[in-house]
Design a protein that fits this description.
Radius of gyration of chain A: 22 Å
Helix content of chain B: 55-70%
Oligomer: heterodimer
Order of helices and strands of chain A: EEHEH
Strand content of chain A: 15-25%
Radius of gyration of chain B: 23 Å
Structural class of chain A: alpha+beta
Shape of chain A: elongated
Largest interface: A-B, 22 and 30 residues
Largest sheet of chain B: 2 strands, antiparallel
Strand order of the largest sheet of chain A: 2-1-3
Order of helices and strands of chain B: HHHHHHHHHEEHHH
Shape of chain B: globular
Number of helices of chain B: 12
Strand order of the largest sheet of chain B: 1-2
Strand content of chain B: under 5%
Number of strands of chain A: 3
Distance between the termini of chain A: 65 Å
């Protein structure tokens, strides 16, 4: 295997139609951003799956570590008062 | 980590899968899970890439523009499917280069069916109808496999694959309704592709080494023999419908089992092709490795251009600041 630089990895996000958010679709290799966009179009939108594409080089994404899931996400579990169902209302109040 | 801790983690891991939870790339996983997935996913990706070759053979000679655009789109889909699967595989920490290296050196396998030649146009019909048909049967259960990136890639693959089978069946149907020569061509293709398609669903359960572990990890939901039976039961009536004959004198409807009984599969042939002695193993590898090598200067040029552009951008930014 050669030691020279290979095309870096890019993550692809596609907005399937206006009004919806961009969603992660997958990844691909490309030499630069422009090529990544062109490749993303060919690889991920062959059947009208999108109206807009974002590409970002994978190395620029910082991801949380699942090992820290406890400290990150567990504190939200006992905060039931953040949900509307926590509050008592008289039956007479139909919509609130 | 002590052995006990690992055992504990493994137990938790298996329990998560049993609960139908998905495993994502950064989650802890047993080394064997990682390795098995790299092996299966890359083999799958390689099959998509090599699978383009037998069909690519007919693109320039498709009998009409309608057939040509369809075949071109199908082959392009296969490239896409290979790419989805390679990227899913890379989430397990193996590089694209390593995966290609494994394919090109013969360390990694691809589906043996692509080592058969495509000698007539009817082969495009038989491949779509039978090979893609068998592939779909194999792939649909993988949409709910335990490894998240694999499952997501398979959902996309399966969505796109059903057009492949239909276009193949349509080719066979039209040929079967055509002149006696055309019908004969269709029958000949069916004769040659039937048995390799059955083999494509894998060795018999008794010979299959990975089944038990793969079932646990939902890499497999049904045994090879069950999948094969499902394929036969669904395909035989389709052949009847277009007036073609399945090349198996022992094929017979079994009223009691509500399934078809079928003849002996020539497993010697299967293992010969797996071991590299099929009609086109060498040709396929030469085509693939040749394409990769001939493309090297293009990849290098693109990388050099990208680096130069970036450098230029940085220097002009610096000038603006100063």
């Amino acid at each position: 295997m050669s030691t020279k630089k290979n095309w870096p990895l890019w993550e692809v996000f596609v907005r399937s139609k206006n009004g919806l958010e961009h969603r992660h679709f997958g990844s691909l290799h490309a030499a630069d951003a422009e090529m990544a966009l062109e490749n993303a179009r060919d690889v991920y939108t062959r059947r009208n799956e999108g109206v807009s594409i974002w590409v970002v080089e994978s190395k620029n994404i910082t991801a949380s570590n699942p090992e820290n899931n406890g400290e990150l996400f567990e504190p939200a579990q006992d905060k039931v008062y953040r949900h509307p169902t926590f509050y008592d209302l008289p039956d007479e109040v139909k919509h609130m | 980590m002590s052995e006990e801790q690992i055992k504990d983690l493994e137990a938790q891991f298996e329990a998560r899968i049993a609960r139908d939870e998905k495993i994502e790339p950064k989650d802890w996983m047993p080394e064997k899970y990682r390795k098995t997935h790299i092996r299966q996913m890359s083999q799958h990706a390689h099959s998509e890439i090599i699978g383009m070759l037998p069909e690519g053979n007919w693109i320039t000679r498709a009998p009409s523009l309608r057939r040509k655009v369809a075949l071109l789109a199908k082959v392009q889909d296969e490239a896409g499917h290979g790419l989805y699967l390679y990227s899913a595989c890379e989430t397990l920490g193996v590089s694209r280069d390593e995966l290609y290296e494994q394919l090109h050196t013969g360390k990694a396998k691809y589906s043996s069916i692509f080592n058969y030649p495509t000698v007539t146009w009817a082969d495009m019909g038989a491949i779509g109808w039978l090979v893609d048909g068998a592939a779909i049967i194999n792939q649909v259960p993988l949409c709910s496999t335990s490894y998240g990136p694999y499952a997501r890639a398979m959902i996309r693959v399966c969505k796109e694959e059903s057009f492949h089978q239909r276009q193949g069946f349509e080719i066979m149907m039209k040929l079967a309704q055509g002149t006696p020569e055309q019908k004969e061509m269709a029958q000949d293709a069916l004769n040659r592709w039937w048995w390799p398609s059955l083999m494509m669903l894998g060795p018999t359960d008794a010979e299959s080494v990975h089944t038990e572990q793969s079932m646990k990890w939902k890499l497999k939901r049904k045994s090879n023999d069950d999948l094969r039976q499902q394929f036969i039961d669904q395909t035989v009536p389709q052949a009847d419908l277009i007036g073609l004959t399945i090349p198996d004198p022992d094929l017979k409807w079994n009223e009691e089992r509500q399934s078809y009984d079928f003849g002996e599969i020539d497993w010697d042939e299967f293992w010969q092709v797996v071991k590299g002695h099929g009609p086109c193993n060498k040709e396929r590898m030469n085509a693939r490795v040749g394409a990769w090598n001939r493309g090297e200067w293009v990849r290098d040029a693109a990388m050099a251009y990208a680096e130069k552009q970036q450098k230029r951008k940085r220097t002009s930014l610096k000038k603006e600041v100063s």
